Amino acid sequence: MSEMARPKRRYDSTSRRARAAETRTRIVEAAGRVFVELGYARATIPRIAAEAGVAVETVYRSATGKAGLLEAAVLAAVAGGVERADVPVEERPAIRRIIDEPDPRRQLRMYAATQPGIWSRVGPLLRVLDAAAATDEVLEALRTQQAEFRHAGLRRFAGLLESRGALRPDVPADRAADIIWTVCAQAGYDAFVLARGWTHDEYERWIGDTLIHALLPQNDAD
């Protein structure tokens, strides 16, 4: 009698993907800490690997060198997590709620509420990027790309306000995007919060007040 064949072990691709995602999260978070602590030039792949508790080869497989790791760390900081960074911006819960809110005043207040957290998370990494971009063409391109990505998102937001008839007649969507871009810039957070000691609540309220009065008709302003 022939021996019965043993059933083949089922390959658990879901578990493998979960482990890979967890490892990548550790690497990106570790890279962010090392970049902020040491700066771009002094941060090394072996140092990042040690911080993440993985092999150097694993770090190399997770991103395209240090520039790729810095980009991943910046995107994760903006999104509020490595996994969240893989979700399209308009599909992230906080942004989706802003898009779906019908009241333009509440929309601008809700957008203002996202800014203190974003700049407190990503600001230190962007300062690393700014310092390194002065002598690195790859990082300069990354900085430009991130700025263009941010402005494009604000242009879509401004276009949404315009399509709903929410903007002042003398403020077209392109101008509105520029105003939001400037009012909500990192420089404002650094000046008000870091330099002058404003609380996050005070900074958020100022953004909301400023955007409402700059973008909405007077009878819509609070």
From TrEMBL:
Pfam families with a match to the protein in the record: TetR_N
Oxidoreductase as UniProt keyword: no
Keywords, alphabetical: DNA-binding
Tree of life domain: Bacteria
Domain HTH tetR-type: 21-81
DNA-binding region: 44-63
GO molecular function, a single term: DNA-binding transcription factor activity
SUPFAM superfamilies assigned to the protein according to its UniProt record, in alphabetical order: Homeodomain-like, Tetracyclin repressor-like, C-terminal domain
UniProt xrefs under InterPro entries: Homeodomain-like_sf, HTH-type_TetR-like_transc_reg, HTH_TetR, Tet_transcr_reg_TetR-rel_C_sf
PROSITE patterns in the cross-refs: HTH_TETR_2 (PS50977)
Record's protein name: TetR/AcrR family transcriptional regulator
Taxonomic placement: Bacteria, Bacillati, Actinomycetota, Actinomycetes, Jiangellales
